[in-house]
Amino acid sequence: MAQPARIVVVGSLNMDLVVVAPRIALEGETILGGQFSTMPGGKGANQAVAASRLGAKVHMVGCVGDDGFGQELLAHLNQENIDTEYVSTLAGISSGVAMITVNESGENSIVVSSGANARMTPDHVRRAESVICSSDLLLIQLEIPMETVEEAVSIANRHQVPVILNPAPANQLSEALLKQVDILTPNETEGKLIITGQADGDASVEEIISTLINKGVKRVVMTLGGDGAAYSEKGTIQHLKAHQMEVVDTTGAGDSFNAGLGVYLAEGGSLEEAVQFAQKAAALSVAKLGAQPAMPSRIEVEHFHNKRSNGGEVYES
Fold it and tell me: How far apart are CA 291 and CA 228, in angstroms?
């Protein structure tokens, strides 16, 4: 590939406050935890860092506060070779923070205080229109106001820039927005909420994907955790197995997946190849603690691919 893929990520930046504990505390319960770490996070920034490490030229569009965390978040993105021209620092506002507990099985519980992310307006996105229109792909999530998400997607559509929308955290989406999305990447909970209005609604993977396609989404890629992924292609639904990994922390696995999917598609790969590449990136990310610290490089993903291809797992569809 002569030039790296150009990806613009519109979304959140948080500081993750991570504590490892034997288990997730019950309501009203206090338990003693172990290791504590402060790590850059936020779904938007996670996806930006992952995409950059996977070889893309990345622009980040978002907001931080004028506090110490905001300075650290910007410095970290710059260290990751991400263009932060359109990350705004908001006066008198705190940066977003995520309180994360990780249990011994690597599963997590997360509470987010949105801070500056909640103050990101459509105007912040409009200022970055020149970057969006010159990109190969827009990657966006739902940790910023919905009107800002809608404006970013609208701008991308106007300039015929493909859009991957990761509908996380789970939220209902209008059909007008869905019709402008090239690829929607829900997990099962998010998919159920979008089509039934309830996160625990009764709907199979096939029903979720078919309903979303009928609502106007061009293609759907569903992440299924340990059960792999499912995606729509030419009127059929394909399934791919997950890689079996020793799980340390699942935080950021979905962000690694979305970044891998976006990078590979922006480079001109097929959807099947992109999903396979994304699965490898996500699998590697769960083997380390934290979100951004665990994001793999392109070399690590390619090494993982070669290792698994030579006597390793075989994909099934």
Answer: 19
171 is in an annotated binding site: no
Angle between helices 271-285 and 253-266 (to 10 degrees): 150
Residues labelled as active-site residues: 255
Q: Which domains does the chain have, with CATH numbers?
A: 9-25+35-309 (3.40.1190.20)
Average pLDDT, the chain: 90
Q: pLDDT digit string (tens) for 1-29?
A: 458 999 999 999 999 998 999 999 999 99
187 is annotated as contributing to ligand binding: yes
Look at the block and give the residue holding tokens 């989404």: 217
CA distances from 270 to 48, 49, 233, 276 (A): 21, 23, 10, 10
Q: Which residues fall within 8 angstroms of residue 27, CB to CB, at 6 or more apart? A: none
**Strands 6-10 and 14-20, how do they pair?**
unpaired
C-alpha–C-alpha distance, residues 71 and 176, integer Å: 37
